[in-house]
């Protein structure tokens, strides 16, 4: 089979590798019909993720068809159309039982293993461990181009942003960073009845997208963003401020927008320490949440996509085939210049 193989910082190749096979009785093999690229894949290529070593197949998002099934697998058979999510889970360990498979102890202490600790989904075939507890059947009326965004971006914006931020009916929500994840949060705040959703981004194209995804107001990032938001909220600030970039300054922006009693929901992956103004924050009774996505909201999101409540297909802006993997990375890696959000990659 062919797959996108990591060969150290800045080096990757779409090349021949041995076919993925069933190794454990709880495995299945999935033929990848649709995959995509995540910002995390770019971090890996920059050499930021030490656990990813030379020879690893990249990717942690796929929709595909089961082609082989281990003896212990009960819930899936050859030919089933399935969603392969970013998180793999045993379903039985302490963290899985607590609904936190992001820390599944059985698969290695962290649920994100594809394209990280084991070979990933940017390939013609992928081996999926703990298939019964990890895979999701895709409903007939949900397309591959919709389901693919439920593997990572949509559950991340929803779980780590909207649910962790505890958005309630009538709330005013600010989302700092309108990339795929921030837009996923914007797309799903409405499900909890947010009255006003304010998007803040440094990129005008992303702000246009934010309006398409359901934002009621948009502001360009900068000095005046906090005062703009205060002016819009009777000087109070927002109930929930979602951070979806991952820089110290964007978390500080989110913190500056929240009103007393509100919640700052940090989604961004941070690479350096952030100094928070605790001397001002303590008296505000604010909460700060953070975490790795569990992808446990996928069944809910699949139903919302199937019923037409969540237009997940809006996330895909560009399509490529497997042999255009380099072009796909080129466009996604320069998303702002290419007016790109997420790319869709298919066999042909
Ligand atoms: N917690 C999790 O489980 C989890 C999962 C997936 C992704 N993430 C993280 O979520 C974050 C967003 O991911 P993404 O795929 O949407 O990334 P992205 O690069 O597509 O989007 C980031 C957005 O932030 C904007 N931006 C950059 N600098 C800004 C600034 N100073 N002020 C305002 N906006 C600014 C960009 O224009 C862009 O629209 C990343 O940090 C990613 O690593 C976290
Ligand atoms: Zn990802
Ligand atoms: Zn587990």
Automatic annotation (TrEMBL):
Keywords assigned: Metal-binding, Oxidoreductase, Zinc
Pfam families, A to Z: ADH_N, ADH_zinc_N
Cofactor(s) the protein needs: Zn(2+)
Domain Enoyl reductase (ER): 8-345
The family this protein is said to belong to: Belongs to the zinc-containing alcohol dehydrogenase family.
Protein name: Alcohol dehydrogenase catalytic domain-containing protein
